[in-house]
Amino acid sequence: MGIIIPVIGILVTLLVSGRDAPADESRTTDSAPTGSPTAKSDEETSTAETSKIMFGPETIEARTSAYGQDIELDASKPLIEESIKGADLNMISAADGTAATAKLLGPLAAHNLAPLPSSSSQATEAECAKSLQKNATMQVDGLVKGRRLCVQTDEGRIAYVRVVSAPSGAHAIKIAVTVWDLPS
Questions:
Q1: pTM
Q2: Torsions phi, psi for 153 (to 5 deg)
Q3: With contact defined as beta carbons under 8 Å apart, do 143 and 166 qualify?
Q4: Cβ atoms 52, 163 nearer than 8 A
Q5: Is the pLDDT of residue 87 over 50?
Q6: Which three-class secondary structure string do you get for 27-95?
Q7: What is the pLDDT of residue 110?
Q8: Euclidean distance between CA atoms 69 and 126, whole angstroms
Q9: What is the DSSP annotation of 163-177?
Q10: Rounded CA separation 168/101 (Å)
Q11: Mean pLDDT in residue range 147-157
Q12: For residue 108, what pLDDT is reported?
């Protein structure tokens, strides 16, 4: 008990003197003792880890066919062609080539797609990253208006895709795409 009172007195003195000490320009007020981690709030962490948008949100159109259309999302603007080496998505439909039977596939059966629940709001990069971590699959069927999904590109970017229109008898689907750049 005899040592506790002096220790408490020293701690109180240090705390009080630290609050009232004049600001020293050469000292940072945000520092922590060496070796002790600084805790960040969830908001600070998500802000610091959020990448800037590389493309979008913008609507693009892809033709449906039994042969498929490749979609490359790592370009400055998504590329859509019949055959793209290293494409991030392949949109293919049944023999009739209509939007009613269209589906999206990841390249070489990669689990780089993650369906999202229905919502009218745009998904964030953090939501997509979480969904890709928990629900990644290699195929998404039912490309109807409002269908939402996230994509992990082969270069590591995260993209959000929402079906804007997919008339069942048509041979084209419009999708809104947002691609986030890699963190710097």
A1: 0.72
A2: -75, 165
A3: yes
A4: no
A5: yes
A6: CCCCCCCCCCCCCCCHHHHHHHHCCCEEEEEEEEEEECCCCCEEEECCCCCCEEECCCCCCCEEEECCC
A7: 86
A8: 28
A9: EEE--TT-SEEEEEE
A10: 8
A11: 96
A12: 81
Here the tokens at position 159 are: 């993209």
- Long-range (24+ apart) CB contacts under 8 A made by 57-61 are 57/122, 57/160, 57/176, 57/177, 57/178, 58/176, 58/177, 58/178, 59/164, 59/174, 59/175, 59/176, 59/177, 60/174, 60/175, 60/177, 61/172, 61/173, 61/174, 61/175
Tell how strand 139-140 and strand 148-152 pair up.
Answer: unpaired
Burial 46-73 (b: 16+ CB within 10 A, else e): eeeeeeeebbbeeebebbbbeebbbbbb
Count of CB atoms within 10 A of residue 125's CB? 23
State the pLDDT confidence band at 173, using cuts at 50, 70 and 90.
very high
Tracing tokens 């993650």 back to the chain, one arrives at 114
CA distance 167 to 144: 8
Q: How far apart are CA 44 and CA 46, in angstroms?
A: 6
